[in-house]
Amino acid sequence: MKGKDYMKNKFLVCKTAFAMLIFLSGICFGQNVDELRSLFDEVHKKGDFNGSVAILKNNEVIFSDSFGYSDFETKAEFTENTIFEFASVGKRFTAVAIGILAQENKLKFTDKVSKYIPQFPYKQITIKNLLQHTSGLPDYMIYFNANWDKNKRIYNQDVLDYLANEKPDLLFNPGEKWKYSNTGYIVLASIVEKASGYSFADFLEREIFEPVGMSSSLVYRQKWTKNLSIKNYAYGHVLNQESKKIIPVNKYLEPRTVYKYSMRPIDGDGNVIGAISDLVKFDIAMNQNKLLRADIQQKFTEPTVLNDKSKYNHGFAWFLSEDRNEINHTGSVPGYQSFYKKYLKEKVTVIYVKNVATYNWAWLGKLDSIIKNSEKAQN
What CA–CA distances, in Å, run from 295 to 292, 310, 314, 328? Predict the structure, then answer.
């Protein structure tokens, strides 16, 4: 009985100490919350931020807010459940899906792509090449913009058929260089389907969204139209640099561009929508190793080693700082921008999503300084 009481008391002491640590770190960071709010108020007034932001410390949200409108015509305001385009931040889900399959021994990072897609013509390219952007695959958008029937939509299989039938030259030998590749992540989504037996959308729902509680997130293919069936949808806009007017993206783009109409059904390189609250849940789940084991996640943050043994600061869907302490991924499609950054030593995460595309990034340096100064004060 005494042993049980001792263990119970020990558990309560540890639990209390951990809670106190989170509380104290929140207080220390809280001294900078006013600076954060002032910064976002400032960039919003300047027209450089229209969207939602969340900042976490030790898996606790220490600052979150929304600025502007989700729909400028109706003046609908943001909520934590407003749905955004994640754009290329969605590549994080593609990479994690591959990681889950590796964890389940359904594939290996070193496997050749042709093991899962026999018609894939580049026999030397591996899954790891695709994850790290070292495959040398050409940009599919260049080909389809020039050659595709604008009345037809483009699907993943169309991209695979293009590679198999046209056999375009690689930009470089696999592993020789690094070049960001949307094409590679489309191929990864198709590998997820082949290795799992589920559609890419169903796999993300079963293995990531549902277990984490990301109730508003899904792979979505019909965008930029007022006939959406998605509630709380943030319509994309752009800021006209000359007139300084905010324009709906469906009026900004040419009416029949491939990008607007044809390319949207493609999976893997983006095409995931959801609320910022879902990205917060995803970040916490990853921190707690609920989706991937720590040893698998470690591979995601290792720099890319090229054929000549030189290193490039990119892992699996993460850009890395020189000291490997900061990792990030951004996303941008017409009308939307997203940002996902982690400070590993400080255990801080910054996430934002915007539905007005702007291109003044100077304020991100101020945000970085606030976070780092807060950590110095805490230490």
Answer: 8, 23, 18, 19
Is 3 a residue whose pLDDT tops 80? no
Q: Is residue 86 part of a domain?
A: yes
pLDDT digits (tens, 9 = 90+) for 251-271: 766 554 545 544 568 899 988
Domain CATH code at residue 97: 3.40.710.10
Please indicate, yes or no, if residue 41 is contained in any of the structural domains: no
Q: Assess whether 88 carries a catalytic annotation.
A: yes
The answer to the question of residue 327 being in a domain is: yes
Distance CA 146, CA 174 (A): 26
Q: The tokens 């005494």 sit on which residue? A: 2
3-state secondary structure of 70: strand
In a domain, 93, yes or no: yes
Which of 66, 88, 135, 277 does the annotation list as catalytic? 88
Alpha carbons 239 and 376: distance in angstroms, whole number: 36
CA distances 372 to 158, 345, 358, 375, Å, are: 46, 11, 25, 5
Coil, strand, or helix at residue 101?
helix
* Euclidean distance between CA atoms 65 and 53, whole angstroms: 6
> Which amino acid appears at position 262 of this protein?
S
Backbone angles phi, psi at 353, to 5 degrees: -135, 140
pLDDT tens, residue by residue, 150-166: 778 889 999 999 999 99
Output the pTM of the full model.
0.89
The number of folded domains in the chain is 1
**Which residue type sits at 31?**
Q
Question: Which residue stretches of the chain are H helix?
Answer: 2-30, 33-45, 91-103, 127-132, 140-147, 156-166, 182-196, 200-204, 210-212, 249-252, 258-261, 276-287, 294-300, 362-378
Domain of residue 270 covers: 49-359
